Amino acid sequence: MKIVHAISAGFWLVAAGVLAAEPTVPATAPVTPVAPPASPTDPIAEALPFLQAAYVDFPALHYKEGDKLSDLESRAQGKISILMPGTVAPAPILTATLPDGIAYCRVGSFSPKKDWAGVASDLNALAGTHISGIVVDLRGNASSDYAGAAQMLGFLVPNDSALLKYAPATKAGAAPIPPLPHLDGPLIVLTNDQTADAAEALAGRLQSDGALVVGRATAGTGFEEDKLPDGAILRFATALHRLPGDTLTRPVVPDIAMTVDDHNEKAALMFIREDRVLDVIQEQSPRKRMSEATLVSGQDPEWDAYLSTLEQTPVLLSLPRVHDPVLVTALDSVRAIRLSGAALAAPVPTAGPAAQAAANDAKAANTSVQ
To answer: Which residues are CB-neighbours of 172 under 8 A, at least 6 positions away?
Structure first.
């Protein structure tokens, strides 16, 4: 089944300038010139020891005297970033029902709003609405919380306990999580190059269990965060510490790979974090709906025509609507799989690249949540 990928549009920012009133100065009084503010110091000196000690592949950065941290960020291709103070709090797990009865679960971290029983209750509520499929969004999740990853896997695929051996033992006296009803329909998993560590392991297990992965390949690393003297957070990739017998898939290669604009995707994920997921899946202008025949065959001429109209639209001095093409492609994939009516693909155990390739070919026809 051929599915056409959408390429994200750019995200424009418009800043408004503010004119300061000029102070009144007596004619006879000397005016003392004011020196311009000093440019901020590049944090390379503070960041370099962290990167030299733990970055996943420091020689590949080709560091030389005089380089700025921005130079290393550019060469790292997403594996080094600077986060402003107050922006690193873990995103709570969110759930929503999207158009056509598709359930959406945003797992930006393994931190429930309240507790795991609350997450189970939210998923129970979704299951009770006769959903047509579920999208699990792991983009940006670089958590090392294998207990949380194992808990999410248990919700989605109850008979898969592969991640439990990587999780710390459950505390004595912990309240059991109520069982979830059968979540019917296709399961789609969204990943990007910031999906790492335990979240990456979860994506790999779900793919092995028959889920369709959409987006970008996962990081294949862990991530470390260190505070710099100015309060900013240095975030960078580190080597994974594998346990003996670790057979988890890393990195996870998506079944539907997409080219994505990083700035637009970050903006979309911020909207989703604010419970505005419906805003990022609505289009800037109406487009023709795909007929059932073209949707089942995997062809999407209407979407191509819609993108063409966007390219011809003049740029206005206003903020365009943020669009999330990865999520839109996932929703279209759920509809296509449901309409195809193909037989369910049986989960294939991980047994090397050949078996994984066969599993990818089989599950593209149909997937379901166990």
So the answer is: none
Residues 282-304 have a mean pLDDT of 56
Number of H helices, E strands in the chain: 11, 9
How would residue 135 be classed by pLDDT, with cut points 50, 70 and 90? very high
What's the chain's length in residues? 370
In this structure, what token pair is assigned to residue 314?
Answer: 């003049």
The pTM of the full predicted model, rounded to 2 decimals, is 0.69
Could you name the CATH architecture of 94-282+321-363?
A: Alpha-Beta Complex (3.90)
Residue-wise pLDDT for 216-236, tens only, equals 999 999 888 888 888 888 989
Please name the amino acid found at residue 305: A
For the stretch 242-281, pLDDT in tens is 777 777 888 999 999 999 998 899 999 999 999 999 999 9
Query: For the chain, how big is the Rg over CA atoms in Å?
Result: 24
67-102: b or e for each residue (b if 16 or more CB lie within 10 Å)?
eebebbbeebeebbbbeeeeeeeebbbbbbebeeeb
Distance CA(35)–CA(210), nearest Å, equals 63
Q: Which residue has the tokens 């959409």?
A: 214
CB 337, CB 186: distance < 8 Å = yes
Alpha carbon 269 to its chain centroid, in Å, reads 7
Average pLDDT over residues 13-27: 37
Domain ranges of the chain: 94-282+321-363
For 121, the 3-state DSSP assignment is helix
| Mean residue pLDDT across the chain | 75
What helix, strand, coil percent values describe the chain, rounded to 5?
A: 35, 10, 55
